[in-house]
Design brief:
two-stranded antiparallel sheet, single chain, globular, 379 residues, 17 helices, mainly alpha
């Protein structure tokens, strides 16, 4: 199982930057549609292997690798497509609804899949339903008008991209994107904050939390904690739909993330399962609210011709920290225990956010009345 998951995870991480480049070159909708169609076929192959009981590492490994590659291509395109579908007034609400839908699917999918496997005593039907879900997703993408998903670059945005070092705003190449990253200090700050925040969050949620639950609450308690975290995430994400008119959205998002750090630190110390569940609910809500708020600002700020590549950089930093995070967190939890790990992770998150706030470019990103040179798009 570990080998198959590695075959899935490594190509996913490696193909995220490629997905961003392709999204800028051929369009986010096209990349997403191809990725879903290919994954539909690949999961159908898993269905056949499961039905015939012929699955082996030699067949599962390569199949999982291609499915992971499809996910890597899909992720940045799915973030970059939103500004081409919605104008600036509706972008925050669109991001909130989209993210909440993904969170709901991530919550319901494993539960329904587990129930289906338990009921049929086989994985065949679960794989078949999964393959069908990719087909449905591809169909919905095909129904989006091509022109609506293409987006265009306004003259003002093109000039701003050139001024920031993006090269040619209508296509940019790899060098243009790297030049933009080199000259856009605020993007550098954001990427550092993303790395630190996800480094802390990955270890907390996937190592320290299950260890804490195992020691104190048992499997049922762990399920309840995850449910509270997920419920908070959905509510916080939907609440972000109301943040589109904030005067300083990044400052607001940073305050929300600091509240998240406080909730993480208190999780093991509030009198048992009920206190931990309450703090995890707050953690999920703050995380969802802050993520959507800051992501929307970044989408509006980024030159449209570079949106796929910038989003892929953010996603790569988020996903790329996970393997190292869980490895180091495992060692720390083993030596200091899960309870002490929570305030340590919270401190890392708080330091990352406070460090970002020391930079004016970060604080004022998307602020009303401030110049937003790369924000203009035509939907």
């Amino acid at each position: 199982l570990g080998t198959v998951l590695a075959c899935y995870g490594l190509p996913r991480m490696a193909l995220i930057p490629v997905g961003g480049v392709l999204a800028d070159k051929i369009g986010s909708r096209t990349v997403m549609l191809i990725a879903d169609a290919v994954r539909c076929v690949l999961v159908a192959v898993l269905t056949v292997l499961a039905a015939r009981h012929t699955a082996s590492l030699a067949t599962l490994g390569p199949t999982a690798a291609f499915i992971g590659a499809g996910e890597g291509l899909f992720i940045p395109a799915s973030v970059a497509i939103m500004p081409s579908l919605l104008d600036g007034e509706r972008l925050t609400a669109g991001n909130a609804i989209s993210t909440a839908a993904m969170q709901a699917g991530s919550l319901l999918g494993p539960a329904l899949g587990g129930a289906l496997v338990a009921a049929t005593r086989a994985s065949t039907w679960a794989f078949a339903v999964d393959a069908a879900s990719f087909a449905v997703s591809a169909l919905t993408l095909a129904l989006i008008p091509g022109k609506a998903a293409a987006g265009t670059v306004s003259g003002a945005a093109a000039q701003a991209a050139q001024g920031a070092g993006a090269g040619a705003s209508t296509g940019g190449g790899g060098q243009g994107a790297l030049a933009f990253l080199k000259n856009a200090r605020v993007l550098q700050v954001i990427l550092v904050v993303v790395i630190a925040a996800n480094f802390a969050g990955g270890g907390m949620s996937d190592v320290a939390l299950p260890s804490l639950a195992h020691a104190r609450f048992g499997a049922a308690g762990y399920g309840a904690l995850l449910a509270c975290f997920a419920a908070g995430g959905v509510i916080g994400t939907l609440a972000a739909a109301r943040t589109g008119r904030l005067r300083t959205p990044v400052v607001f998002g940073s305050i929300v993330f600091l509240a998240e750090a406080g909730a993480i630190a208190l999780t093991p110390y509030l009198g048992g399962e009920a206190g931990a569940a309450a703090m995890l609910f707050v953690t999920g809500a703050a995380n969802g609210l802050g993520n959507v708020t800051v992501l929307t600002v970044l989408q509006k700020w980024t030159p449209p011709a570079l949106l796929g590549r910038v989003m892929s950089a953010v996603m790569f930093c988020a996903f790329g920290t996970f393997p190292l995070s869980v490895a180091i967190s495992g060692v720390l939890v083993r030596h200091i225990g899960p309870s002490l790990f929570f305030p340590a992770a919270a401190a890392l998150l708080a330091v990352a956010i406070l460090g970002g706030l020391t930079q004016r470019e970060f604080r004022m990103l998307g602020a009303r009345g401030e110049e937003e040179p790369a924000a203009e798009t035509t939907a």
